[in-house]
Amino acid sequence: MSKQIVVVGSGNAAMCAGIAALEAGASVLMLEKADQDLAGGNTKYTAGAMRFAYDNADDLLPLLKDPNDPRLAVTDFGGYTKAKFADDLLGFNGGRALSDEQKRLIDQSLPAMQWLGGHGVKFEPIYARQSFEKDGRHVFWGGLTLAAENEGVGLFDMELAAFERLGGVIRYDAAVTGLIVEYGQVTGVNIGEEVIKADAVILACGGFEASKARRRDWMGGHWDKAKVRGTPMNTGDGLAMAIEIGAQKNGLDDGCHATPMDLHMPDYANLDLPASERKNYRKICYFLGVMLNADGDRFVDEGENFRNYTYAQFGKAVLDQPGHFAWQIFDAKVDELLYAEYSFHDAHYVQAETLEALCEKLDGVDAKAALNTLTAYNDAVNADVAFDPTKLDGKDTRGLPLAKSNWAQRLDTPPFKAYPVTGGITFTYCGVKVSESGAVLDDHEKPIAGLFAAGEMVGGVFYEGYPGGSGLTSGAVFGRIAGVGAAAGV
């Protein structure tokens, strides 16, 4: 008789867990808190990009929806080795060694992508956001090359199709309210008074970023002031249930993915919009200009590294500024390089023909100090180095207290534009400790029988930041692991 598995949640990690369990011969019931329109967790809010280790284009071509795209002949994908992936993760570990979870993520990233491809999940090169044209070729940068067809919405749709094709069943409006524990083993879940028995339960229901109270109580700092850029459903219920029965917490309490977002966006990125448009409130082209706070000062090195490696930290940096906001300043030279979200119909910005006039329009900012900062920045730009967005170009500033290390161009071409931003929280990093088979561990490193976890529920994957695109890959890797483990009962 096949194992009966309950998966809590319906995002990328939950779907991968369900697909893997079905593939291993189990029967799977997926329970989703949201209605059908809001199902899919944070997955639908993403751009669908997935970071994984690969040697060269030969690893990518079998994953593509259109392997005959004529652009491929003039595309330089480069490679992204396991060693480079490890270095990128270590750069956000605050001096910590690679965790066991990070090692699993790296080692299983390409196999997970190939496995998804085998279930009909197809990908497209991220030409618009991850490549620049140079000498007639499309040059990819930052190690991030592929996104799911139709981005996060497409990823969810393709995974759901695979899940249902294999016989999986999903129930909507089915919020799990408790875990059933009998003789030390998880044997099912409650939905209110309803009892659903199972041989194993996989918690893949996200972090706690959508709960202002839990952000305040568990994270501290200014996190209760953050905009929530993802689903309203991720309120930490699964994490609280697991901890209540003895699960070991893992990771930093205040660790999270936070991104500069439109200051005037609604929480959950405007649920009146199609899910595919909600991501357009992010504002991550700061590397092409400068950011100013309420005092008129720059507060980060906007050109420290490719934005893949900085946006998750700079969201927090913006939130930590006076009033929890900043302004991103650009001139007309970079208009064609700004991502589509800057021309999004609901994007907020001000515009002027001079920097002086622009500074007067920066609501909440010391205009005189801002103009002085921009003037000093312009005077400090290194004119001897050519601007090249395809690499860390070394076009820096000289003599400023806070340098801009790359892509520093003078702001000298009107019209000038400024976009108000704040910090938007995407997902939390603190979760539970899991075994190599995805089983949830207690404080004595012993598996809690019948309980598994995946996705944002798994702690120890990210600490003080993350290289862009790793979140969905982590969901796929740990979802697949949990599904196999739950079906095997290990």
Structural notes for this entry:
- Keywords: FAD, Flavoprotein, Oxidoreductase.
- GO terms for molecular function: oxidoreductase activity.
- Its cofactor is FAD.
- Residues 5-470 form the FAD-dependent oxidoreductase 2 FAD-binding domain.
- Pfam families: FAD_binding_2.
- This protein has 2 domains: 4-208 and 429-488, FAD/NAD(P)-binding domain (3-Layer(bba) Sandwich), CATH 3.50.50; 258-424, Succinate dehydrogenase/fumarate reductase flavoprotein, catalytic domain (Flavocytochrome C3, Chain A, domain 1), CATH 3.90.700.10.
- With 490 residues, it is of the alpha/beta class.
- The mean pLDDT is 95.
- α1 (12-23) runs parallel beside α6 (151-165), α1 (12-23) runs parallel beside α13 (470-488) and α4 (100-118) crosses α13 (470-488).
- The chain has a 6-stranded mixed beta sheet with strand order 9-2-1-13-23-22. Strands 14, 16, 17, 18, 19 and 20 form a 6-stranded mixed beta sheet that branches.
- The two termini are 17 Å apart.
- It contains 13 helices and 23 strands.
- 27% of the residues lie in helices and 20% in strands.
- The chain has helices spanning 12-23, 57-60, 82-90, 100-118, 127-130, 151-165, 212-219, 237-244, 275-278, 311-319, 355-360, 367-380, 470-488; strands spanning 4-8, 27-31, 49-50, 75-76, 123-125, 131-134, 137-140, 146-148, 169-171, 178-182, 185-191, 194-197, 200-203, 227-228, 249-250, 256-262, 290-292, 326-330, 350-352, 416-428, 431-432, 439-441, 447-453.
